[in-house]
Every structure is written in structure tokens, then in C-alpha cells.
Amino acid sequence: MGGGIGGLTTAIGLRAAGWQVKVYERSDTLPTAGTGLGIWPSALRALDGIGVGAAVRAAGLPQRNGAIRRPDGSRIVTLDMDKVRERHGEPVHLVARPALLGVLSEALPDGVVHFGHPVGDIAELCRDNDVVVAADGIGSRIRSALFGDRHGLRYAGATVWRGTADLDIESGGETWGVGARFGITPQGPGRTNWYAVLTAPEDHRPALDDPDELRRVFGGWHDPIPAVLDRYATSHVIRHDLHHLAPALPSYTAGNVALLGDAAHAMTPDLGQGACQAIIDGVALARCLSGGDVAAGLRAYDRERRRPTQRLAVASLLVNHMSQARRFLPLRDAALRLALSFGPPA
Fold first, then answer.
1. What is the pLDDT of residues 144-154, one digit of tens each?
2. Boundaries of each FAD-binding domain copy (predicted)?
3. In sequence order, what are the beta bridge partners of 24?
4. Which neighbouring-strand residues pair with 68?
5. Rounded to an integer, what distance in angstroms lies between the CA atom of residue 16 and that of residue 299?
6. What are the backbone angles phi and psi of residue 323, rounded to the nearest 5°?
7. 226 to each of 164, 207, 280, how far by Cα in Å?
8. What does the DSSP assignment read for 60-110?
């Protein structure tokens, strides 16, 4: 079990259900830097079920209405958080990843999370424990050991830069160009999350330095994108290719092992659901195992979580392909407006 969002959420739920839990995390500490996450109402309700929902809300801020725009600033579609609030009782909450992990970690007593402890022999781990939770992320070793290389990571056709900038913005959203897009969301007073996505070959290394490459592509886009890029040098920036899991797993369990989060259904970030679904997975798994019958609980978890998360992964990949379009942009924009008219997954 990894010490990320899914692993910590599961640990809190399992302990509440009476289980003795150990979390093995290969990193030495919790991260102190990271960009923001949108925590949707369904995930907030799951966090309420394990007693940490209020703390997560307090660690972030409600997301305001935003928009998806074209590079000249014209609006393609409104991102209506008021509609989310009307339907589900509250909006999306924006929470920095370190803040979310901090809340989850503080809900566990000392000694539960073992930092600097990568998992070695997976067979031994399964033999020595009643249940093993594989929450070891997008490159899950446990998934590979159980299901082989056929179910592996596939390149989604784009690379992404993520960072934060010392800048105030009132609302967030995305801007879609030709094979490129830029997103911004407020993180708090004087702080803004941003990400830039470029359609590119796998392992793309731009000819220019990263800041100059982003200014070349996005520097002439509407405000405040140039102002964000002007602060690149002071940002904590990560760059990586986007991947998804394909083909989908035939089961989220094998023997006494349950997979969750990115280990089970790694998806592109286009619907903002990766962290949310890991949270819901963890709470669902803990609930399914609360009766003490491991085999029945794992079957119930797989029935409850596999199909919904795999449908979301497919939908996210479709949005990814739309956002990277290089032709038929008016048709793309119309399809986006139609899709959002049915409401986002909350």
C-alpha cells in the first residue's frame, strides 16, 4: 500500500472498521510541493464517511465559475460551478496536493505510515497479510506482477508542465488552441496553479529551454497566461508525459490483493477525477471489508468500483483527444458544449 491519496484514505477507513493497518511508502516524507486538485462532491461525501471531509474543505477553497476559451480569450463554454452546487449541495473544492495529504496523514496515528519503505517481495507481502492494498500509483509493480505487461501504460499523445505562480486570479479554466491547451486555477490568496499541455511525440524534449518553449507556444494567448509564464522561474514546475492504462483490467482484485487509484485505472487528467476516484475507491474498499469476510468483501469492491471508474477513464481519454485536435475545431467546440450540457461527473 502506498502512502498517497488512495492509500491513506483506505488506511483511515480500514482502521475505523477495526483492521490493523500498515502503510508502506517509498518516499522519505510527505511532499511539501505540488499543484492543486479539484475535489468533487462525490469524493467529499466519501471523505465525510471517514470523518475528514470538513478538514479537507477547510484546507482548500470552493471553485468559482470558469470557462474554456480560445487563445484570443473568446469563450467556448462556461464551467458552471453554480450548477454543480444546485445538483449536489456544494461546489468543487480546490485543495493543494500537499494539504490534502497532510489532512489524511494527520488522521492516522504515528507508526501506521512507514516512510522510506519500498515494497520488496510481493509474494511475501501477500502471504504475511490478510489483505494487501495495491495503491502504488500509475507505474504499479503489484499490477504488473498480477496482470503482466499486457495491461500497461499507453502514451496519450501529450506532455504536460505543471506549476504554481505567485499571482491572484479570480476564476480558473482552460484555453484550447491547436494541439495545445493551458489551464489555471486559484490555489489561495496570491497563489495560482497552472498547467500547459502540448501534443508531442513520447519523451518529447523541446529544442528550447522549457520556459522559452512555453512562451513560444502560449506567450501570445490571452491574459493572464503571459503573466503566469513570466513567473515561471519562481515556480515549482514538473514536466511529464501523459499516460493511461490500456487495456482495462479484467478485475481490481486477485487473490487477497485489491488495486485502487491509478494502480487500478490510471486515466488522463482531463476530467479532474484521478484523485477523486482514488478517494472513493479507498472508502468503498474499507466499507466492503468491514464485515470481515475478505473474499466476499473483495468481490463486492470489484463489482462496485470497476465499471464506473473504467467508464470515467474512457470519457477522460475522449476529452483528451478532443482537446488535442488540430482540425475541425468548430466541430470540436460544439461537441464540447454538448457534452458539458449534460453536466460534469460530480
1. 999 998 999 99
2. 2-107, 132-312
3. 114
4. 77, 174
5. 21
6. -70, -20
7. 14, 20, 37
8. SEEPPPEEEE-TTS-EEEEE-HHHHHHHHSS--EEEEHHHHHHHHHHTS-T
Q: Which residues lie closer than 8 Å to 311 by C-beta, 6 or more apart?
A: none
Strand extents, DSSP E, the chain: 23-25, 36-39, 61-62, 66-69, 75-79, 93-96, 113-115, 132-134, 152-165, 173-176, 180-188, 191-199, 238-246, 253-254, 257-259
C-alpha cell at 328: 475541425
Task: Look at the domain 5-64+90-153+246-322 and name its fold.
Answer: FAD/NAD(P)-binding domain (3.50.50)
Domain ranges of the chain: 5-64+90-153+246-322
**Closest to 189 (Cα-Cα) out of 98, 111, 96:** 96
> DSSP states of 160-192 as a string?
EEEEEES---S--EEEE-SSEEEEEEEEETTEE
| Mean per-residue pLDDT, 188-209 | 90
95: phi then psi, degrees, rounded to nearest 5: -135, 130
Q: What pTM did the predictor assign? A: 0.94
